[in-house]
Design goal:
This protein has 488 residues and is an alpha+beta fold. The protein is 34% helix and 19% strand. A hairpin with a 2-residue loop joins strand 9 and strand 10.
């Protein structure tokens, strides 16, 4: 059963793919050419290369000019294409070994027709088409056996089954699978109608590789299915320790903790309740100031959602006995996940996104729990600026990653570290938006009166001395100088 994608998802996906700097091993762009046997070879090559690079999906996109990545539209229609008397999709499926989950989707982008062939990465074994396995070398598809080093690397990668697709429970009958998983949440979050009958329910869950049918007719559940949809994570052994924790402390240290609410179900099941519980525990800590209305909470909802979703997605699932945690203090909110950051924490805003758990991130995006497009940190920084809060911090702490939101306080009560961090993230945010940082933008960021430009100049000077920003045009007058992040 092919998973049906909605139009907004497909347009967003196409936008993400064409924004890539060059054709990658897991993406192929075409205008109209759609020869069936070439298509089968591309499915083999792209799915194998996606697995080699740790990607969850691979794509062929028709309607995009190769090289320039310009949107040109296509006349290719997979629904009417046939090989002999057989439908194209059925013919391709029969020729692939092992059977691969793939599907064609058609969407209108800027009033031009685009076709997306979406396929899973190879899993456990290289994908073959008509008995031959292929790989992508540069922009060409080649026979895998001609590149023994790549073949060995692919097998090593396939042997390292991602945590999401490791089996957490097996030999279950249909009723037991549906008892353990909150399947109504799956269909509700994906805006899909609830199918009639157990067979259709199981087929839909299997299409997203949450579960899998065994040769015996019984079922196995993958970690991905349990992590997102479990009624009780504790029913799945060690996954019980990966449940999200929410702790509120009485003060700005960890001496006095209040009783913890329980979020023992899968992440997709508890996500909205978790966000609501966080806000409920922040309600008594509202701060009223010039920058905030009386009915605005202590921290922006957008920032909280992004940080919680990021903690779920980017945690190192291989770390045993630990899971994501949200801690609320009187002066800050900390969101921590197991696993060190995959990139320099100072470059989280501008670097391309990297997901430690590709399949988890992809499904959470479809459930509208996260973006998975590298804009999460941008949104957190921007929302803090709009509320004139201190800038958030992102830190590596004893094998974990911690993001911190700080309660509102005036500039006069910020220490040097707070001010420098705020100027740096402000410069990063403006740079990725194609703007420079100036005295005027700093005054706006901190709510400094226009007549007090000297204060903004001191903030810029301190950040420059800390080497987190640099002058873009040194010859300009001091008040007119433009600044960029140190890495720009």
């Amino acid at each position: 059963m092919a998973v049906q994608r909605d139009a907004d998802y497909l347009r967003s996906l196409v936008s993400e793919l064409v924004a890539l700097p060059a054709e990658t091993g897991w993406v192929e762009f075409k205008h109209n050419r759609a020869v069936p046997h070439e298509m089968g070879e591309y499915i083999s090559a792209l799915s194998n290369t996606a697995a080699l690079h740790g990607r969850a999906k691979a794509y062929v996109v028709w309607g995009i000019e190769d090289g320039s990545h310009q949107l040109v539209g296509t006349t290719f229609n997979p629904l009417v294409e046939k090989v002999g008397n057989q439908e194209l999709e059925s013919w391709l499926l029969i020729q692939l070994e092992p059977r691969l989950n793939f599907s064609f989707h058609t969407v209108s982008v800027n009033d031009l027709p685009v076709v997306v062939l979406e396929m899973d990465a190879a899993f456990r074994h290289p994908v073959k088409f008509k008995g031959a396995d292929w790989i992508r070398v540069g922009s060409y598809k080649k026979r895998l056996h001609e590149f023994p080093e790549m073949e060995r690397a692919l097998w090593r990668q396939l042997d390292q089954t991602p945590f999401e697709f490791q089996v957490v429970a097996e030999k279950l009958d249909a009723q037991e699978v549906l008892r353990r998983l909150d399947y109504p949440s799956y269909f509700r979050l994906l805006n899909l109608p609830l199918p009639d009958g157990h067979a259709a329910l199981l087929q839909a869950l299997a299409a997203d590789r949450l579960i899998e049918c065994m040769d015996s007719g019984h079922w196995r559940i993958f970690n991905l299915g349990a992590l997102l949809l479990a009624h009780r994570l504790a029913d799945f052994g060690s996954l019980g320790r990966k449940a999200v924790r929410l702790v509120r402390y009485q003060g700005d240290d960890r001496l006095l903790a209040e009783p913890e609410p329980q979020f023992s179900a899968g992440y997709a099941v508890v996500y909205e309740a978790l966000i609501g519980a966080i806000h409920q525990r922040l309600a008594g800590n509202e701060v009223i100031g010039k920058a905030l209305r009386a009915d605005v909470r202590m921290y922006p909802d957008l920032a909280i959602r992004e940080l919680v979703a990021n903690a779920l997605i980017h945690q190192d699932l291989g770390v045993s006995g630990s899971g994501p945690m949200v801690e609320i203090f009187s002066n800050r909110l900390e969101v921590t996940n197991p696993g060190i950051p995959l990139m320099d924490t100072q470059r989280l805003l501008d670097c391309p996104p990297r997901s430690r758990n590709e399949a988890l991130a992809s499904l959470m995006r479809r459930m509208q729990m996260c973006e998975e497009r590298g804009t999460g940190v941008d949104k957190v920084v921007r929302s803090c600026e709009l509320h004139q809060l201190p800038a958030p911090s992102f830190d590596k702490v004893e094998g974990s990653t911690r993001a911190t939101l700080y309660a509102l306080r005036p500039l006069t009560r910020m220490d040097a570290e707070d001010r420098i961090r705020a100027v740096y993230w402000h410069a990063c945010l403006r740079h990725v938006c194609g703007q420079h940082t100036q005295n005027a933008s700093i005054r706006e960021r901190f709510g400094i009166a226009d007549g007090n430009s000297s204060m903004a100049s001191r903030l810029l000077k301190d950040a420059e001395a800390a080497k987190v920003i640099r002058v873009f045009d040194a010859k300009a007058a001091p008040k007119q100088r433009r600044y960029v992040p140190f890495w720009a």
